[in-house]
Write a structure and sequence with these properties.
GIY-YIG endonuclease, four-stranded antiparallel β-sheet, 37% helix, alpha+beta, 4 strands
């Protein structure tokens, strides 16, 4: 089962809701210049916080990747891993189309998570 979270839905989860079941998230983050980063996690709120706070060394820190623009939810880790690999294999144009299908304004889906 795949649940796609879009800008149109309320993404203000409670921490316990995220960990109530085994859920895995494939996500795409970006910066002001729309550099893209795709990743996978079992705790989307924590991972996005790590990226925003620059706690993870590497690509996202170097390129100031701080805006969550796309998320898919999976119950099966293998499905999530497979989906991340598929997305990472796509050309930039296809990734942009995926984002814009769900989030045409490229809003930061995590905007109010840490208030």
């Amino acid at each position: 089962m795949v649940v796609i979270l879009s800008a149109a839905k309320n993404l203000n989860f409670e921490r316990n809701d995220l960990n109530a079941m085994n859920q895995y998230y494939v996500y795409i983050m970006t910066n002001r210049s729309k550099t893209l980063y795709a990743g996978i996690t079992n705790d989307i709120k924590k991972r996005v916080y790590q990226h925003k706070s620059k706690l993870i060394e590497g690509f996202t820190k170097k390129y100031n990747i701080t805006r969550l623009v796309y998320v898919e939810t999976f119950r099966d880790v293998n499905s999530a891993i497979a989906r991340e690999k598929v997305i990472k294999g796509w050309l930039r144009k296809k990734k942009i189309a995926l984002i814009e299908e769900q989030n045409p304004e490229w809003k930061d889906l995590s905007e109010n998570w840490y208030d």
